[in-house]
Amino acid sequence: MKEHFAEQLEEVRRQLIFMGSEVDKQIHAAVESVMERSTDRAREVIARDRDIDELENRIEDATIHLFALQQPVAIDLRLLIAVLKINNDLERIGDHAVNIAEGAERLAALRGAKPNVDLRHMAEIAMSMLSDALASFIDRDTALAREVIRRDDTLDARNESLIRELLTYMAETPSMISRGLELISISKNLERVGDLATNIAEDTIFLAEARQVKHHALS
């Protein structure tokens, strides 16, 4: 019985890792759709969101099934709790990828020069936070998880700076207002990806150390 439970637990973990990989690809593709002004890539991201939703449902059902039929304790209990929370966060990151892709579609339809803001740098921070948060979960690497959490302040500051730059452009050049608003929306979605990556890192620390570090309470 215990061996069967361990196998089921590992299968749920593998499914979550696979979902993380798929969501990571979605974010990268969404960002590239913005940078390349590619409506084709943006539509691919939007179309794949249904697959992410189905994965979330399967993982949630499997995890609840294990809760219902077993009485997990200690590390097994923490793993199932972490899986449920990370699964939800990954689905939400997938939604942000769709938001970014939809913004890319709208941007591609706009004419004129684009504001000279470094959106790619912000995107790289958010994407690296997600990749490292997933790696920390896979390896139960709490040092890496803590580094992800610390990086969230950098991402927040970059988001605020980028929004200020865009507001200045929009005030000086009214013809850029539509483009500026789309870029602000994309920036905010990237900032939320960083927040959710931080959640995954915090849940990794909970899983490995049985301690909560919410609200950046690192030590």
Care to describe what's here?
- This protein has 219 residues and is an all-alpha fold.
- The protein has one domain: Methane Monooxygenase Hydroxylase, Chain G, domain 1 (Up-down Bundle), CATH 1.20.58.
- Helices cover 84% and strands 0% of the residues.
List descriptors.
Methane Monooxygenase Hydroxylase, Chain G, domain 1, mainly alpha, 219 residues
Fill in the CATH topology: Methane Monooxygenase Hydroxylase, Chain G, domain 1
Give the helix tally.
6
Distance between the termini: 39 Å
Mean pLDDT: 94
How many domains, as an integer?
1
* Helical percentage: over 70%
Pairing-aware structural class of the strands and helices? mainly alpha
What pattern of helices and strands is seen along the backbone? HHHHHH
How much beta, percentage-wise?
A: under 5%
What is the CATH class?
Answer: Mainly Alpha
Count of extended strands: 0
CA-atom Rg in angstroms:
19 Å
Shape: elongated
Q: What is the name of the CATH architecture?
A: Up-down Bundle
Describe the biggest sheet? none
**Assembly state of the chains shown:** single chain
The residue ranges in which pLDDT falls below 50 over 5 or more consecutive positions are none
CATH homologous superfamily annotation: Phosphate transport system protein phou homolog 2, domain 2
Care to give the gist of this entry?
The chain is mostly helical. The protein has helices at residues 2-35, 39-69, 74-108, 119-139, 142-172, 177-209.
Show the helix and strand layout.
Elements: H1 2-35, H2 39-69, H3 74-108, H4 119-139, H5 142-172, H6 177-209
